[in-house]
Write a structure and sequence with these properties.
By secondary structure, the protein is an all-alpha fold. The protein has a domain at about 105-325. The chain contains 24 helices and no strands. Helix 8 packs parallel to helix 10 (about 185-200) and helix 20 runs parallel beside helix 22 (about 405-415). The two termini are about 30 Å apart.
């Protein structure tokens, strides 16, 4: 669930000098101002022109990462309050409360509920218990173990941070890798498979990836009845088909000399203090089952998904599964990033900027062609910038391209944001796999190209099948 490129850079420990960041920031300001003057028209209102600058400014900062992605979202919210209607600092936008309230929107609380479920599984070591329990049923043949690891990773990534899931699976796989010659192709297949499964597995649920939550928020803001179970209707099949397809590619491309391997238990150093008593695990399992069950059946009992999300929050804090010191470990930067993305979507729509963008860009009448174009564009941008930021920019614009099919375009863009695998810094799972020292940057290119080109095609076809 972590924001992709910035989180990946933290794992690779890459730092930029302050002077370089300031230079990028100033350059982005000047480029955004120049492009605003070039692209503006006489028909655009002042708020629309100011929103155009905000869109270009935010996109430039997200791509260059002159400041952290979550800081860009805070800037978006602040700009929307003070400079949208007028550059006069004393004039505050009439809609400032709406732009601030995205921080407490139902989508944010759905994500927080998901984060609490993930933290409960981590602090009780239930995630590792579950992984070992499932993997032993895949036998000891190398490619069966690889498939098992990828499936477990994909399922956990639907409900947990893909970063935490990858780190855990790498630790679990350590004793397997030690049985294999370092130069054997299976080593690369295992790390590439786990990293890819962690990324595409997040497509399965709304809480699996921040772009999914942004897409759902924009869909619901348009008054379209669409929830957790409706997302999984297409998201889960896409995730599993993608994982199986990636496994087939790895199986055929990386041939191993080993016929059997043994899966051994491995102690994992906990990142946070553990509560491994049986009663805590029972609370986590019961809360997880009830919460997900209520999420999936929200259309039957009419309890909003965001309201159900309070169940793990209350249950884990009251029973002591999650404690005060654990709260600081929640990915607050991701929540702020999503809130800023929702605000940017509102601004683009409210000011009429989306209408002007659509009127100035040729739009194909064929729905499938537009879905593919937007899907590939999302994949490309997600490889070079935050996938959450890419979704924040493209979903409201894409919805304006196809107003009669805004549900389709929003879901396609949200899911396509999880198909960026081309670079080590494209996703945190890629960065973790790369940091092990077993992979080179060129090792990511095959899956990156196949998933980047084929992923949006698969997504578009399945989304059309279920939702058109």
């Amino acid at each position: 669930m972590a924001d992709s490129r910035f989180a990946a850079l933290r794992f690779l420990q890459r730092k930029w000098p302050l002077i370089q960041k300031v230079s990028f920031f100033l350059a982005v300001v000047l480029i955004a101002l120049f492009l605003t003057q070039v692209l503006r028209s006489d028909e655009m209102s002042t708020p629309a022109v100011n929103a155009l600058f905000l869109l270009l400014f935010a996109a430039g900062l997200w791509i260059s990462e002159a400041i952290p992605p979550f800081a860009v979202s805070i800037l978006v919210i602040g700009y929307s309050m003070y400079f949208l209607d007028s550059i006069d600092l004393m004039i505050v936008s009439k809609d400032w409360e709406r732009y601030v309230s995205t921080w407490s929107s139902p989508i944010i609380w759905i994500l927080i509920g998901g984060f609490f479920l993930a933290m409960g599984a981590q602090v009780t070591a239930f995630d590792r218990k579950f992984s070992h329990f499932v993997l032993r049923y895949f036998g000891n043949r190398p490619y069966n173990i690889l498939l098992g690891c990828m499936l477990v990773t994909g399922v956990l990534s639907m409900f947990m941070s893909n970063t935490a899931t990858t780190a855990m699976m790498v630790a679990i796989l350590a004793p397997i890798i030690q049985q294999v010659d370092r130069k054997d192709p299976l080593v690369k297949a295992v790390f590439l498979g786990v990293a890819a499964a962690a990324t595409v597995g997040g497509m399965g649920t709304v809480i699996g990836s921040p772009p999914n939550a942004i897409a759902l928020g924009i869909i619901q803001n348009q008054g379209i009845p669409f929830g957790f179970s409706q997302w999984m209707l297409a998201g889960v099949p896409i995730a599993f088909v993608s994982i199986f397809g990636i496994w087939l590619v790895l199986k055929n491309h990386y041939k191993t000399q080993y016929e059997r391997l043994e899966l051994q238990a491995n102690s994992v150093t906990p990142v946070i203090s553990q509560r491994v008593q049986q009663r805590y695990r029972f609370i986590v399992v019961a809360t997880f089952a009830v919460t997900v069950g209520l999420w999936l059946t929200s259309t039957l009992h009419s309890i909003p998904v965001a309201v159900v999300s309070f169940l793990p929050i209350v249950s884990f804090t009251v029973t002591g599964v999650v404690r005060a010191e654990d709260l600081r470990l929640l990915p607050w930067d991701t929540l702020i990033l999503v809130a800023g993305g929702l605000t940017l979507g509102m601004v683009i729509s409210d000011t009429g900027l989306a209408t002007h963008i659509v009127s100035g860009i040729p739009v194909f009448n064929n729905v499938v062609v537009m879905l593919l174009i937007m899907g590939w564009l999302t994949t490309f941008l997600s490889n070079i910038m935050s996938n959450t930021a890419a979704a924040s920019i493209l979903i409201p614009v894409g919805s304006s391209f196809l107003p009669d099919h805004s549900l389709l375009i929003s879901v396609v863009i949200g899911l396509s944001a999880s198909t960026a695998l081309f670079l080590p810094i494209s996703t945190p799972p890629n960065a973790i796999a790369f940091s092990t020292g077993y992979l080179k940057q060129s090792d990511f290119r095959l899956l990156g190209l196949l998933v980047g080109l084929g992923g949006p095609v698969l997504i578009s076809l399945i989304v059309i099948f279920f939702y058109l």
